[in-house]
Amino acid sequence: MTRGKLRIYLGGAPGVGKTYAMLSEAHRRVERGTDCVVAFVEHHGRQRTEVMLHGLEQMPRRQLRYRDAEFSEMDVDAVLRRAPAVALVDELAHTNIPGSRNAKRWQDVEELLAAGIDVISTVNIQHLESLGDVVESITGVRQQETVPDEVVRRADQIELVDMSPQALRRRMAHGNIYKPDKVDAALSNYFRPGNLTALRELALLWVADRVDEYLNAYRSEHRVSRIWGSRERIVVGLTGGPEGRTLIRRAARLAEKGAGGEVLAVYIARSDGLTSASPKELAVQRTLVEDLGGTFHHVVGDDIPAALLDFARGVNATQIVLGSSRRKAWQYVFGPGVGATVARESGPDLDVHIVTHEEVAKGRGLPVARGGRLGRARIIWGWAVGLAGPAVLAVLLNTIDLGLANDMLLFLAVTVAAALLGGLLPALASAAFGSLLLNYFYTPPLHRLTIADPKNIVAIAIFVGVAVSVASVVDTAARRTHQAARLRAESEILSFLAGNVLRGETSLEELLERVRETFAMESAALLERASDVEPWTCAGRAGFGRPLERPEDADVDMPVGDDMALALTGRVLPAEDRRVLAAFAAQAAVALDRRRLQEEADQARTLAEGNRIRTALLAAVSHDLRTPLAGIKAAVSSLRSDDVAWSEEDRAELLEGIEEGADRLDHLVGNLLDMSRLQTGTVTPLIREIDVDEVVPMALGGVPEDSVELDVPETLPMVEVDPGLLERSVANLVENAVKYSPRGRTVLVSASTMADRVEVRVVDRGPGVPDEAKDRIFEPFQRYGDAPRGAGVGLGLAVARGFAEAMGGTLNAEDTPGGGLTMVLSLRAAAVPPESPSAGQDTAESPVGEDIAEPERQTL
Question: Is the pTM higher than 0.70?
Answer without folding.
Answer: no
